[in-house]
C-alpha cells in the first residue's frame, strides 16, 4: 500500500511541477511570470484587439480566365485542322457570381459536319479538362469536367491564401491568422485575423488588390474614345487574339478615356517578376513602381523588345492600362509602372507585386475591429469573473464539506494549473469565450467533487467505515463522472471541428478542463484522502 501511495504521489507531483513550469517557466521575478505567460499564451482578437476579416474568393473569375486561355489555344489548334473559323466563332458565357461558376461554358460555332470527328478528337486530346458536346450539326459546347472544376476552385483559394499571407508578412504584422474559412467546397472564404492592428483601411486595400500585371503588345497605335469606335475602325472584326483595354490618361479637367487594341497573349506577366520597389521617375519626379524580371523572363523580354523597336507596349494592371510607351531600344530585365497617385500607392503596388498576384479578386464579407482598450477591459472583466467564481466556490466547499473541502480546493487549483499549462505548451489562442470555458470548468470540477463527497456521505450514513465509504464512494461516482465528462468532451470536439473562431476557443478550454477534471477529481482527490489517512490504524470519522 505504501509503495502504491508513493508512486501515485510521485505521479501527482510530476504533473503539478510540469504544469507549474508551463505556466511560470523559471522566473527570477514576478515580471518574468507575466512575460512568460504573455509569450506562451496567445490572446485572441477579442482580448488583444485587432482586425477580423473574412474574404470571399471570386472563383468564377478564375474559371473565366481559364476559359479565355482555352479559347486562345483552341483558335491555334483549330487553325491547324483546318477548320474555317473566325475569332468570333469561339465565345464563352459570363458567369458573374460564385453560384454560377460551375456553368462556365465555351461555345464553338461553324464547325463543318465533315470535321466534327476531328474537332472532338482535338478537344479530347489537347483539352482533357473540357467535355465536348454537340448542340447542333455546326455548334459545339465545351463544359469543364466536375473534377477539373473542383480542382481549379480549390487551387484558386489555396493560392489566394498563400498570396494574402505573403502580403501580410511583407507588412511586418505579428502573429497573423490566415486560413480557410467555412466549407471548402461551397463558400471559398478566407479568414484573416491581425492582432494589434487598429486601422484596417490600408491593409484591406492591399489585400484586395488583384495585382495581375501584364505587359502586352499594342496591335493598333491609335487610341479610341470608346469600344464602338475601335470596332468600327476594324470593320466590326477585331484582329485574332486581340482585346480592348481602357487607359485613363491624365488630362486638363480630369481623366480622359482611351481604348487600345492589345494582343491578348502577354509578353510578360506578374509571375515573371523577381522584385519590385517604389521610386521616383528621374524626368518628372513622379512616383512609380520599378520591377526586375527573372533571368529567363529578362532574356525573353530582351529578344522581344530588340525585334520590335518603334512599336508600343502597354503595362496592364488588373485589366486596366497604366501606361503606354514606345520601345526605343532593347530592354532586358527592368521596367516601371507609372501613372500612380503618390508615394503610398507606389509602395503598396511594389509590395503586392513582390507578394504575387491574386488568381481572382476578393470581396469582404465581414470586417470587425476590436480596440486594444476594449480587449484590455475584456481581460479584466473575464479575470474578475473567474476569480469571483473561484472564491465563492472555495468558500462554499470549505463551509459545506469542512476539511474535505480543502481536498476539493487543492484538486480544483491543480485543475486550473493544468489547463493554463496546456494553453501554454500548445500555444492555444485564449479568447473571451475561452475564459467562459474556464469558468464553466471550475463549476464542473466542483460538481465532480460534490458527486464524490455525497456518495461518500451516503456510505457513511449506511454504517460503513471511513475506508470502506471512501472506496465505495469513489467507485460509484467513477462511472458517472466518466459518462458525463466524456459526453461533454465529445460535444466540445464537435464544437471545435464545426464551430468558428470564438466557439472554437470555448471548446478548447472546456475540453482541456474536463480532461484535467477527470485526473484531479478521481486520481488526485483520492490520493489526498489516502495520504491523510496513511499511518492511522483506525479512523472512526471523516470531516466531510
Could you characterize the architecture of this molecule?
- A 5-stranded mixed barrel has the order 9-11-10-16-15. A 4-stranded antiparallel β-sheet has the order 7-8-2-18. Strands 3-4-6-5 form a 4-stranded antiparallel β-sheet.
- The relative contact order is 0.12.
- By secondary structure, the chain is an alpha+beta fold.
- It is built from 15 helices and 19 strands.
- The mean pLDDT is 84.
- The chain has helices at 2-24, 30-40, 45-48, 59-79, 116-126, 146-170, 201-208, 227-233, 295-307, 343-355, 372-401, 403-425, 432-461, 466-498, 502-533; strands at 42-43, 50-57, 90-92, 105-109, 130-134, 139-144, 177-181, 189-195, 213-224, 242-251, 254-263, 268-269, 273-280, 287-293, 312-317, 320-326, 334-337, 362-370, 429-430.
- Among the domains are: 2-47 and 371-533, Multidrug efflux transporter AcrB transmembrane domain (Multidrug efflux transporter AcrB transmembrane fold, Up-down Bundle); 213-366, 2-Layer Sandwich (Gyrase A, domain 2).
- Helix content is 52%, strand content 22%.
- Helix 11 (372-401) packs parallel to helix 13 and helix 13 packs parallel to helix 15.
CATH fold node name of one domain = Multidrug efflux transporter AcrB transmembrane fold
Architecture of one domain in CATH? Up-down Bundle
CATH superfamily of one domain: Multidrug efflux transporter AcrB transmembrane domain
Tell me the β content: 15-25%
Oligomer: single chain
Number of strands: 19
Overall structural class, as computed from helix and strand content, comes to alpha+beta
Assign an overall shape.
elongated
SS field, number of helical segments: 15
Overall pLDDT metric: 84
Going across the major beta sheet, what is the strand order? 9-11-10-16-15
Amino acid at each position: 500500500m505504501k509503495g502504491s501511495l508513493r508512486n501515485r504521489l510521485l505521479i501527482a507531483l510530476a504533473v503539478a511541477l510540469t504544469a507549474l513550469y508551463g505556466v511560470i517557466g523559471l522566473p527570477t521575478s514576478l515580471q518574468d511570470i507575466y512575460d512568460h505567460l504573455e509569450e506562451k499564451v496567445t490572446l485572441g482578437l477579442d482580448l488583444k484587439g485587432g482586425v477580423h476579416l473574412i474574404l470571399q474568393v471570386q472563383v468564377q473569375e478564375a474559371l473565366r480566365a481559364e476559359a479565355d486561355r482555352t479559347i486562345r489555344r483552341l483558335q491555334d489548334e483549330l487553325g491547324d485542322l483546318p477548320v474555317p473559323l473566325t475569332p468570333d466563332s469561339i465565345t464563352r458565357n459570363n458567369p458573374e457570381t460564385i453560384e454560377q461558376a460551375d456553368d462556365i461554358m465555351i461555345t464553338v460555332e461553324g464547325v463543318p459536319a465533315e470535321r466534327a470527328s476531328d474537332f472532338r478528337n482535338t478537344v479530347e486530346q489537347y483539352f482533357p479538362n473540357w467535355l465536348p458536346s454537340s448542340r447542333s450539326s455546326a455548334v459545339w459546347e465545351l463544359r469543364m469536367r466536375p473534377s477539373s472544376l473542383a480542382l481549379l476552385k480549390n487551387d484558386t483559394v489555396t493560392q489566394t491564401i498563400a498570396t494574402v499571407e505573403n502580403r501580410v508578412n511583407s507588412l511586418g504584422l505579428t502573429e497573423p491568422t490566415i486560413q480557410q474559412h467555412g466549407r471548402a467546397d461551397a463558400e471559398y472564404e478566407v479568414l484573416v485575423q491581425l492582432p494589434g492592428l487598429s486601422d484596417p483601411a490600408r491593409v484591406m486595400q492591399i489585400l484586395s488588390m488583384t495585382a495581375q500585371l501584364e505587359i502586352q503588345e499594342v496591335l493598333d497605335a491609335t487610341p479610341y474614345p470608346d469600344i464602338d469606335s475601335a470596332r468600327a475602325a476594324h470593320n466590326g472584326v477585331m484582329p485574332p487574339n486581340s482585346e480592348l483595354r481602357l487607359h485613363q490618361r491624365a488630362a486638363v479637367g480630369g481623366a480622359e478615356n482611351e481604348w487600345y487594341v492589345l494582343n491578348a497573349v502577354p509578353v510578360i506577366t506578374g509571375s515573371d517578376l523577381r522584385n519590385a520597389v517604389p521610386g521616383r521617375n528621374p524626368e518628372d519626379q513622379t512616383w512609380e513602381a520599378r520591377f526586375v524580371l527573372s533571368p529567363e523572363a529578362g532574356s525573353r523580354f530582351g529578344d522581344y523588345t530588340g525585334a520590335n523597336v518603334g512599336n508600343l507596349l502597354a503595362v496592364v494592371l488588373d485589366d486596366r492600362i497604366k501606361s503606354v510607351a514606345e520601345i526605343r531600344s532593347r530592354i532586358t530585365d527592368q521596367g516601371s509602372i507609372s501613372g500612380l497617385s503618390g508615394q503610398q500607392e507606389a509602395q503598396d503596388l511594389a509590395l503586392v507585386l513582390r507578394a504575387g498576384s491574386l488568381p481572382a479578386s476578393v470581396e469582404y464579407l465581414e470586417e470587425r475591429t476590436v480596440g486594444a482598450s476594449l480587449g484590455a477591459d475584456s481581460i479584466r472583466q473575464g479575470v474578475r469573473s473567474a476569480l469571483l467564481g473561484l472564491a465563492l466556490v472555495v468558500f462554499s466547499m470549505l463551509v459545506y464539506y469542512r476539511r474535505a473541502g480543502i481536498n476539493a480546493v487543492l484538486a480544483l487549483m491543480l485543475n486550473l494549473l493544468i489547463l493554463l499549462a496546456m494553453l501554454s505548451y500548445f500555444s492555444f489562442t485564449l479568447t473571451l469565450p475561452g475564459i467562459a470555458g474556464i469558468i464553466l470548468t471550475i463549476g464542473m470540477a466542483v460538481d465532480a467533487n460534490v458527486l464524490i463527497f455525497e456518495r461518500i456521505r451516503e456510505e457513511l450514513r449506511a454504517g460503513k467505515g471511513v475506508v470502506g465509504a471512501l472506496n465505495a464512494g469513489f467507485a460509484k461516482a467513477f462511472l458517472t463522472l466518466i459518462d458525463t465528462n466524456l459526453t461533454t468532451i465529445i460535444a466540445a470536439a464537435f464544437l471545435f471541428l464545426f464551430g468558428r473562431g470564438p466557439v472554437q476557443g470555448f471548446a478548447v478550454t472546456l475540453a482541456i478542463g474536463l480532461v484535467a477534471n477527470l485526473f484531479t477529481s478521481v486520481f488526485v482527490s483520492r490520493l489526498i484522502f489516502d495520504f491523510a489517512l496513511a499511518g492511522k490504524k483506525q479512523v472512526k470519522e471523516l470531516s466531510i
